[in-house]
C-alpha cells in the first residue's frame, strides 16, 4: 500500500514548531467530508450488504501497545492492525519499532505515526476505511493521528478517542442514553473559527442502571469522512462493547502480541 504523501510522514527529529507547522499543512490537505466508494450503510450490517448486493468495505482498526527495557522505560511501540470485512476478521498484523520521543499532548503522531506506518506495510489487504484509537479533527491544529495517517496514506479515516483533547461539547455529555451524539465545536484552543463542528461525543453503549454510566467516545473525521458519517460508523461498528469492533480487536491484538513477545513465544 503506497504512502501518497511521503513529505508528511511524521519525523520525530523535528523541532516542536516544525511539527506544529506540519500539522497545519496536514489539516489543510485533509478532507473533512465524505469521499469514498463504499456504502456506509453496510458498515455494521453484513445482511444489509448481502441484500443490496454491495460489497462491504474492508475496515482496519489500529491501536498501540508499548514494550519496556530492563530499566522499565517504554522504548518500543507495538502497533497492531486488524482488518475486517463483512464483520469477520480477515487479517491481523503488527510491527515493533523504537520510540523516538516521549508523549507530548497534541503531537502523538510524531511518537506513534512511524510505528503505525510500519505495521500498515505488513498488511496485504487494501483498506477502505481506517479507525484509529486517537483523535482526528478534534485536535488543537485539526490534525490528530487519524488525520495525519489518513492524509499520508490518502485513505478515509476516523479518530475514536476515549477523552476530549480540545473543543467544547454543545451539551452535557454525562450519562446520556445509547445512540446519543453531542456536537463538539471548536473553541479558543483550536486552530479553527469558534463553532466549527469538529466531531461528536458518541454514546455507543450505556448501562441500564441509574447508579453507573459509560462515558462517551469522542469521534471525529480523520480524512475523507464527514463528522456525521464518522459518528454513524462508530455506532454501527460498536457491537456489544463501547469501542467500535475493529479498534477493540486491534487493542486486544496489541495486548496479545505484547504478551507473546514478553513470554518469548
Automatic annotation (TrEMBL):
<feature type="binding site">
    <location>
        <position position="133"/>
    </location>
    <ligand>
        <name>Mg(2+)</name>
    </ligand>
</feature>
<feature type="binding site">
    <location>
        <position position="63"/>
    </location>
    <ligand>
        <name>Mg(2+)</name>
    </ligand>
</feature>
<dbReference type="GO" id="GO:0043737">
    <property type="term" value="F:deoxyribonuclease V activity"/>
</dbReference>
<keyword id="KW-0234">DNA repair</keyword>
<keyword id="KW-0540">Nuclease</keyword>
<keyword id="KW-0479">Metal-binding</keyword>
<dbReference type="InterPro" id="IPR007581">
    <property type="entry name" value="Endonuclease-V"/>
</dbReference>
<dbReference type="GO" id="GO:0005737">
    <property type="term" value="C:cytoplasm"/>
</dbReference>
<keyword id="KW-0227">DNA damage</keyword>
<keyword id="KW-0378">Hydrolase</keyword>
<keyword id="KW-0963">Cytoplasm</keyword>
<comment type="similarity">
    <text>Belongs to the endonuclease V family.</text>
</comment>
<protein>
    <recommendedName>
        <fullName>Endonuclease V</fullName>
        <ecNumber>3.1.21.7</ecNumber>
    </recommendedName>
</protein>
<feature type="site" description="Interaction with target DNA">
    <location>
        <position position="103"/>
    </location>
</feature>
<comment type="function">
    <text>DNA repair enzyme involved in the repair of deaminated bases. Selectively cleaves double-stranded DNA at the second phosphodiester bond 3' to a deoxyinosine leaving behind the intact lesion on the nicked DNA.</text>
</comment>
<dbReference type="GO" id="GO:0000287">
    <property type="term" value="F:magnesium ion binding"/>
</dbReference>
<dbReference type="GO" id="GO:0016891">
    <property type="term" value="F:RNA endonuclease activity producing 5'-phosphomonoesters, hydrolytic mechanism"/>
</dbReference>
<dbReference type="GO" id="GO:0006281">
    <property type="term" value="P:DNA repair"/>
</dbReference>
<dbReference type="GO" id="GO:0003727">
    <property type="term" value="F:single-stranded RNA binding"/>
</dbReference>
<keyword id="KW-0255">Endonuclease</keyword>
<dbReference type="Pfam" id="PF04493">
    <property type="entry name" value="Endonuclease_5"/>
</dbReference>
<keyword id="KW-0460">Magnesium</keyword>
